[in-house]
Amino acid sequence: MAAPLTLLLIVAVTIRAVLFRSNLAELISERVEVVSPLNAWKRVVEGLALLDLGVSPYSGDVFHETPFMIYLFHFLVDYAELVFMIADGITAVALYQSIQTYNKNVFRKQKYALESDRYPADCLELLRSPKEMFYIPLKVAMFYLLNPFTILSCVAKSTCGLNNAIIALFILCTLKGSALLSGILLALATYQSIYPLTLFAPALLFFLQRLYIPVNLRRSSFWFFTLQYAFIYVGSLVVITGLSFFLLGSWDFIPSVYGFILSVPDLTPNIGLFWYFFAEMFEHFRLFFICVFQINVFFYTIPLSIKLKEHPVFLIFMQIAIISIFKSYPTVGDVALYMAFLPAWSHLYRFLRNIFLVSCVLLACAALFPVLWHLWIYAGSANSNFYYAITLLFNFGQILLVSDYFYAYLRREHHLTHGLYLKKKDGTEATLVLK
Amino acid sequence: MAAHRSGLSLVCILFFSSLAHPSNCDTLEKANDNKAEKLSISEVNTNGGVAGEDLNERQWLSTDVEVDKSDGSKNSETLTPAPAKDQFQEELVIRPLHSGDIYASFQFRTLWDTDFLREGQKVSHYRLFPKSLGQVLSKFSVRELHISFTQGFWRTMQWGQPFIPSPPGAELWVWFHDTVSDVDGNWKELTNVLSGIFCASLNFIDLTNTVQPSASFKPLGLGNATDHRFLRYATLPREIVCTENLTPWKKLLPCGSKAGLAVLLKSEKLFHSSFHSQAVHIRPVCQDERCTSKAWELRQTLNVVFDLYTSGQGKKEWSLFKMFSRTLTEACPLASSSKVYVDITDNPEGELFELSPATPLLSQAVVLGDRRTYSVFDLSRAETFGQLRSLNLLLRWKGDSGDMLRPLLHAERYVAGFGLQTGEIHTVIYNNHPYRAFPVLLMDSVPWYLQLYIHTLTVTSKSRDNKPSYIQYQPAKDRHRPHLLEMLIQLPPHSMTEVTVQFERALLKWTEYTPDPNHGFYVGSSVVSALVPSMVAMSTNFTQDQPLFSSFVPVKEESSYFVRVYTEPLLVNLPTPDFSMPYNVICLTCTVVAVGYGSFYNLLTRTFQVDEPSPPLSKRLANLIRRMRGVPLLA
């Protein structure tokens, strides 16, 4: 398996290197779909320039990266292209290995269940064969590396690629069972962009399941492990934040990074739902709606964790997808991360209801983004509503996609316990509905 | 008779001062050539003819007056019983410009020997100094205040340097006294008060357009305050200046618009011009040459450029009446001096134009690095007005004027780029000096909604990189403060230096756009301040009776003079949202969020069940009856 992966990496790096050298790179790095005020490379360079001038990068409103990013690129600014290619490579390899591990787990569980005869007889066609599972990790890596969204994001040197790498490494460490590394990486991901905070729940569920600790609030073992993991997470978060303080000698980065993410002061258009909504918001409702929209990201964590407590990896996918849809400054790089997981759920394909519609919508939107942007900003023959409409549709498509996969996952689980061909009481073929 | 006498004594002062300091070219009012000198003397003689013999005595007397003026208040107190602690001077300079336009610059100066900032002592007796401004000074502990309202743009390349430069729109800069603790609070209140005094929209000055330049705006008066925490600078480039600003400005003058030069200030003519700028400058200055005591100086200036060439059917001639639709009939009785200067430097032999009535008095002054010759009309002398009791200066061009000397320092600015996403500000500074390089301070204050990228800053002169030796940059905070960029750039001789910086345009909230948002947003002028090498030696000593127009900026060294050049303000378009959409956007976005919420809620709370069709209504009714009867239900 190593050879195809290596080949894939070489192809991916070649594509990126070629694009870096072409004059498309500059065009791509200005695209609002690819870079947001949070992760634009231009702003990283600006932050470094401010530091050189002896001005705190956080004294203005251009730079919103964390202090770690400053220090990383303080040394690596000349090798930025390399850094972003390596980050993409790391993400792909981490996802590859994670899915490999996950598939092994799934297969083992399926074998035990099969041996203990827990599946209904007509469900055999739902079971997953090693043959079809063999290429899934490679497909995942390919979906990430060759996804145009990832390529664009990498060529634009959006620091979103680095955040993706951290999240991918976190997933890998979680699936490999290392609570310490997982906690540290999760803290790092949270430090970078707050939202990965919601991944705490699936990671905890995964470890509990792995250690055969039942989720029972009366059991001390449950509390012991939960506190242990929370301690690792919070501890590393405190250490990282403290280190940042000592790097710069001030707490200025807290309002400038996290305040900026949460209060959405910059309304530069992006593919998300926030910019136009808050550009058009009535002033006295602004705070209320900011709270509503931000809570939306964190809101689904608890019900999803309850519903999917047996399936933490799918929960991770759901959480990442929800973050990328509802975060305040989304870019296509965020979308690419959860899309990389889609091959891992290829066995859900038969239960997807409107995958054709959704793919058409997403493809059409991806094509229309630059067109309508051009019409609005450069040609002046359209206005902001055109671009807004397409972001709305794009998010609608993403929501449909994610909820469709969620539906398919739940339905497959239902079939695995109740049989594939359900019958009504009178013996005719039954239809399954949500009630 | 009294007017006559004072007029005579003034002439004597001037005459004697020319004898006393023959090298003092600033204040020198000396005859340009023998003929003029003879004329001047004969003028003195004919005037003195009435008094006859006591001419000598009077000359001495007037010299005494000059002495005690220059020796400070101590002498004057001993000599005169009730010393007027305040004095008022008025002056009009008319300079025919090479483009055929006429530049008229009024200056009114009130000097008052008092201290507004003294603790516990309220200044309540006002004579010449306007009370409204005096109270503002003491209430807000203002050390120096400069405010200007300008309509139109000063075209440096065609018109040369103005005596007092000002940017289009309104400009306000204030140095507060260093005892002020809440500078921002004082500033906010001060702008609101000034807004009321001048009927202007100065109340739109807030933190988002106020900056604290570290080097460009040093105090012009006494005191070497260097802590720029006490300085506030703001411009409103969109401010429209009109009659309602002129009327309160005129009311600050001791004579109002009733007498003196101010009768010429009729708004219907002043605003029918290519350039109009009115300003108020208040600062502490030295009372005398030795600077023993401090006085407050209120300088009200009004500069106007008339385009008489195009409106005059191609005839290049002007008169006071043509410009202002008024003539001068008297000086302001409260003024200690009242003069009209006409720049005749280019016309030494009278071959270019003809000025009437002819005046024997000539004056030379070194102003803006150039030695200029002026014809002087002293309004405090009755014979200035001649037989008709009115003075209507008339200038008729005979030939075509020669080429103008290009101003040594010149700057312009524009926005490059297309589309509404990014752009680039180009500032071009010209050094037209043939062999001298000199440094300039460039100050740019850019509103926050244009996000500057300082790493894209380039400075090139003669197509080579010219690294600024000093950069002070304060990045903007969204909705809180603007960008401030100050640079010290060395301009090579005879060169063009281009400063570029890229910016990104922000999308604002729909309520933050000005009315008519597609008109664009103004970005205030950038300010180029420099000490330009002078062609002639500047006079560094301070004297009371030098013309006002040459004494505004203190000269520190002989070899250079201070110039401030304002560039054009920029008009930048920003992307706009659709202003009619707030309800629609709120509804549509919330719908999409609700679709997400709804579908997740559905999947989270419901479970899969086999769809059993509900039995028909008749069956359900039958079962209901059966249940009541207690018999088994139908299947």
From TrEMBL, chain A:
Keywords in alphabetical order: Endoplasmic reticulum, GPI-anchor biosynthesis, Membrane, Signal, Transmembrane, Transmembrane helix
Subcellular location: Endoplasmic reticulum membrane
Record-level GO BP terms: attachment of GPI anchor to protein; GPI anchor biosynthetic process
Transmembrane parts of this sequence: 134-155, 167-188, 194-213, 225-251, 257-278, 285-302, 314-342, 354-379, 385-407
Topology within the bilayer: Multi-pass membrane protein
Gene Ontology, cellular component aspect: GPI-anchor transamidase complex
Pfam families: PIG-U
Pathway(s) served: Glycolipid biosynthesis; glycosylphosphatidylinositol-anchor biosynthesis
Predominant location category: endoplasmic reticulum
Protein family membership: Belongs to the PIGU family.
Protein name as catalogued: Phosphatidylinositol glycan anchor biosynthesis class U protein-like
Source species of the chain: Carassius auratus (Goldfish)
Gene designation per UniProt: LOC113050250
From TrEMBL, chain B:
Keyword Signal in record: yes
Biological process according to GO: attachment of GPI anchor to protein
One cellular-component annotation, GO: GPI-anchor transamidase complex
Signal peptide region: 1-25
Pfam families linked: Gpi16
Keywords for this protein: Signal
Protein name: GPI transamidase component PIG-T-like
Gene responsible for this protein: LOC113098289
